[in-house]
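step: validate -> pass
step: tokenize input -> pass
step: predict -> running
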Amino acid sequence: MYQLELGTSVKLFWKGALNPDYRQQLKEIKRLGFQSVEVSMGQVGGYKLTMEMATQVAPEALQAVLDEGLIINSVHMPFHRFVYISSCDEGVRAWASDEYRKLMEACNPFKPRNFVFHSKVGRDEEGLVEARKPALIKTFREIVACTDSNVCIENMNATSYPNTIDRMLEVLQQVENGKCCIDINHSLYNKPEDMIVALAPWLRTIHVSDNDGTNEKHWMPNTGVIDWMKILGALEKIGYQGAFTYEVLADPDGRLYSFAEIRENYDQLFEEYNKYRSR
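step: predict -> pass
step: emit ->
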């Protein structure tokens, strides 16, 4: 029987402020039998404010996870529209990288397995991807050096870099000890099961959700077009032992998913897969 650790993303910030339901959500997650969480930092404003607030509240937020008897599978670094960690201006890039370092060092005592981050290189149509790549690599190398946890770059969606197997490899092969997180619903130009196999040596954690084949949606698995039997087959094939971390938002009608629905989906998905693999 194939089974993976059940995890989910929980938002530390929500609608531009601290999530008032954070602790209660952790209790519900534990009650439902989840084993781990990703603490998602999100954003509360501009880069400076977001990083300062995240660094200030991270220790208490991560301790709350441990107090519930849950595993901190990952800390999702703040994400926003700014591109400072991959800025072409070295002074700006270095400052932004140092802000990442401060946040990660605040998290290190709680021993998260992984830190997950977005490249912030931007989209192809903006015409700055090539110019920003060296800054991304430099920042990635710096933040890998400031923790014993895995530091995982996430594959991006649409035309954002890095959004394909080849582009992910281009980054990972330049960063010693760099790892990756595969967001399954972001993989629009390669089949996500192919990305799992191709990036297996670097893969440490995943984000689980479905899409419509043309854009990211963060739907519940089996709502969109992704073949989840192939996804689970690829994970088993490579011997993946990380968390199966849901990062779902709302259904096609805009209704937010509950943690109970995630639990039900997980149970159904693995029951279906274990029947499928035994044929």
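step: describe -> Residues 47-67 form the longest helix (21 residues).
step: cleanup -> pass
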